[in-house]
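Review box. Two proteins, two foldings.
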Amino acid sequence: MRNRLIFGIAILGLLAGLLAAYISGREKKPPPPAFTPASNPYARGISANGIVESYQTSGANVNIYPEVAGIIVRILVAEGQQVRRGDLLLAMDDSVQRATVEQQTAQLEAARAVLAELKAEPRPENLEVAKAQVEAARAALKTAQDQLDKLKRSSQIEAKSVSKDTMDNAENGVKVAAAGVRVAEKQLDLVQAGAWIYDVRNQESQCTALSRAVASSTALLNKYTIRAPVDGRILAVNAAVGGYVSAQGAYDGYAQSYGPVVVMGSAEDIVEVRCYVDEILVQRLPDPSAIRATMFLRGSDVKVPLEFVRVQPYVSPKIELSNARTERVDLRVLPLIFRFRKTASMAVYPGQLVDVYIAAK
């Protein structure tokens, strides 16, 4: 009885093993792909990596860096907002520079006041004083002359009535009074002549120098506000109120590198694709007039025919588009620019990576 039980258990174990082997050996049907992988649509096609950018007649997206360093106190735009050339984007703390401009402006106003004073000479009050001094000097001369004449007449009548010392003093008094008249008349001429031309020119030079200093300080003050250089759309604002920015841009704590404070692009529905063709494939490119290309959006079945725009005629070291811009490899690439019109149903944004196939010769 015991042997039969053991034999039955062994048969059941064998059957269970065979069943498990059958189940595990069955080939499972793979699930359908989420999207059709991109494939070369041309018989002889060149594959290239591309990055989406806003369409520019030349260059790429507009990367805006401040020319001065400071703390951001206001941000007046939002990402995706349409702006016009000259619109204020953000402002930095300019309290120190503004005080400098105000100080230099006050110095300029003081220098201009002095210049106006020089050009307005002679002052009527000074002129009247000078004329009065001339009249007083002439009166003093007449008094001294009359005193001398009296002494001379007395000496003619009686020689001993006037001493030689008194006569000499009277004659010297006349000479001193005459010199006083000449001094007063010269002083009147000086007052009537007004400011010396060299003083005026020196003050004019000081006004010019201060005016240029104010213009320079004002120009520097204006750099504490960043305005839109062109019409377009705000693609990214990489700073916040209270953050510090410099000519290097804004520091990105995630990427641990500096980047533009504001990135702008065109406001049109036309989008461009900058693709990089390996240098070993450049010889296979057809004539620019015959270039045809197709773009595939990663993660979807969307493919878009591209319109050729231009070749950027400079072969540069290849960069890893999905990582830091400073990462380089030995291969060099030739940039080609294409464009296409974006539709409402097309989820395409600047900075997006795409696959591009170019029809070869």
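Next protein.
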Amino acid sequence: MAAAFGLYTHIQSNRRRSIALLLGLFFLVYVMVYAGALIAEAMMGDASLTWLLQAAWRDLIWAAPWATLAAALWIVIAYLFNQSLIDAVTGATDVTRKEQPRLYNLLENLCISRGIPMPKLKVMDDPALNAFASGLNARQYSITVTTGLLNRLNDQEVEAVLGHELTHIRNGDVRMLVIAVIIAGVIGFFAELVFRIFFQSGVRWSSGRSSSGGSSDRGKGGGGAAILIAVALIAVAWLLSTAIRFALSRRREYLADAGAVELTKNPDAMIMALRKIEGRGELDHATSAVMEMCVDNPREGFADLFATHPSIESRIKALIEFAGGHDPGPLDLPEPGDETGESQQEESTGEQGDTVNPPPKPFLPSQPPVVLGGSAPAAQPEVTGPPSGPPSGPWGPTRQ
């Protein structure tokens, strides 16, 4: 019970921190509005820095409700169309039990075991080894798996990956991450727009013109400093929004790994799945937002500040420490066209905690053919143990 209590305590704590980070993202939206107002005031006429800062604050108070409404509208649009956009980028298609019985049954069994509604199941035709969950509500939730992952992981490992993504859905991670990506996208779009205007279009502001009414109160000479402050605020807001977005993703991966083990009761399968996915998850045509939702994102960030996922090594170390299991170390998988023989040999060894596939059924020799009109067939090997009925001949039980 202690382990389960610890897991769910971490989930609740992580959810509270995530809400705080989302509120921080909304705060950064208002920082961007203030910076935009400061730039507008500086370009409208020369004034002292103090006057411009106060004028931008008044503009922010007036514009805050409109900024909130615009952010909410943006979220509603994403709520309605985010899954369609993701499918368009990745080329994923819905699959049924008839089309993917192995994958469908594995996911269905996990959902039934915990009483979880069955999300939609999608497959993306890509040799990379990866999967991700998406959606903002129960009707949209879906799990997408690449064909490369299906071809190169065994049933236990695929089940662990499905458990990982199902945990993201259960914990509300998918909805939280999509909202964070949306808000951070708004901040990034505005930041890029401002920098393009000032550094590519060569926009200049007036330093000798003042608007009507109280030039002595306005002062002068603060336009340049106001522009620099606004640009600095925009840059800081963009960096912080990116860091917050990635921090949301990193924290959740550890809990999703633990959730997969809690669902499957098989830490070795999750460890082996991570080792096989390691360095093989790059989706060439996917955007950075899609890669953030994947089991692993091989796109590295600067000094791990902008890394969306913790390293495979740290995730496996956490699994071994808190869930047990064995680490086989980095794996050299064969090329996609040559994995049949080697992968079967690898799965049958069972070294260092690898999940072992069930051994093949023993070969049972068939009865010798009966030649009509010929001699009786050769005698069968003697079977030990008491007879279970009358002696059997080539045509069935011999009548006495």
